[in-house]
Amino acid sequence: MENLPKVAYRTLVLGYNLSQLPHELAEKVSALLKTQEEFKQWATEWVLSGGRSPLPERNPLKYFANRFLYAGRALDWFEGLKKSGIEVEKMQPPLVFNAQLRLEKERDVSRGVFVDIQKRVVKIRKWSSKRGNTIVLPLGENAIKWILERVVKEGGKLVLAAVWIGKSRKTNATKLHVALVFRREVASMETKRLLVVDFNALHNGISWAVVEGERMVSRGVLRPDVAKILHLQKVATRLDSACAESDEICDKATATRSHIWRLVRSWEDEAAKKLVRLAVQYRAAVVVDVPHDSSVRKLKKGNYAAEKKIFLNFGRIRRRLQGLAAWYGVPYREERLYSTICPRCGRKMEELPNRRVRCQCGFEAHRDEVPFYWAAKLYPKLISFSNSSFSTPGVAAVGATGF
Ligand SMILES: [Zn+2]
What we know:
single chain; alpha+beta; Nucleotidyltransferase, domain 5; 2 domains; 16 strands; 36% helix; disordered C terminus; binds zinc ion
């Protein structure tokens, strides 16, 4: 049957800057780091042996190995590793815990990670045989709000937690991360329309259109603050070249790069949310036109301005969009839609200035709109997919880089 509920996940990642944690936690955190290193060693051997090496005999490693394998089944973790050719070198397996969420006065059932909404704390336990090694971390206002929306409003359940200590590639700060994974069962939304999303290089924006039959019901473009980002890129480049002069300048360069990264990231999050909101509002299945990896690689290698390359990374926003669509039961599909082939007659079109295209047959449009005409043309096929075999991608891979 088509409308069986599917399982979807959302993850909240809390980050705690080690340099800002209370002093008394320092010793516990370094012990936790040691456990993480030991676990990493086991996990690496395990992956290299193709999953044949034995489980650790003693806790806490035994506990983490079991949880890790459980999470692996639940989240396709191991499959994901295999598909990406098992990059063991880069593998940073998190410590996976079972977890409990206390909304009010529920009994504490002694799970590894305990999220207490009333007391506004997250406790990490079970990772050491030493008594009193519980790590208690504060839970901020936004995190609480996020959790309550997922759980109370949307019926999600906290199913597991993952913890890792690592240096952020982007900000260079060492952080303790706690990822809380929520699961929900959701029936696929019945769709009446398509939300066609065209991923261009992000400085041209993400164009979207709601298509119903041959009609475009609504449309728009989502754009990051390109001018600001390009300006900051220039600042960072200047600082980088003066980096040899002093540590202070180097730190400023790093801070600027991290600022850029945060800007792009929060824009991506907002854009993904906006698109899924539109899909729900219009009862539309999401059809995404993502450029081929090979054409993106070509652009990156070519004479594309270095400071614009940041706008060619679609991976993250695409994963955000997929994950959110799954959570809200919005059918999602990726489809290559043409932007330079005429949707009327199939001829290759002439490219004009200002990203316009024109065909011999008289058809003319902005090239970012052409995929919408193609979606309208393919509408019967795409909408029938959307109400049957459309995939609702529910599973995310676990990794130290985030979920
Ligand atoms: Zn034509």
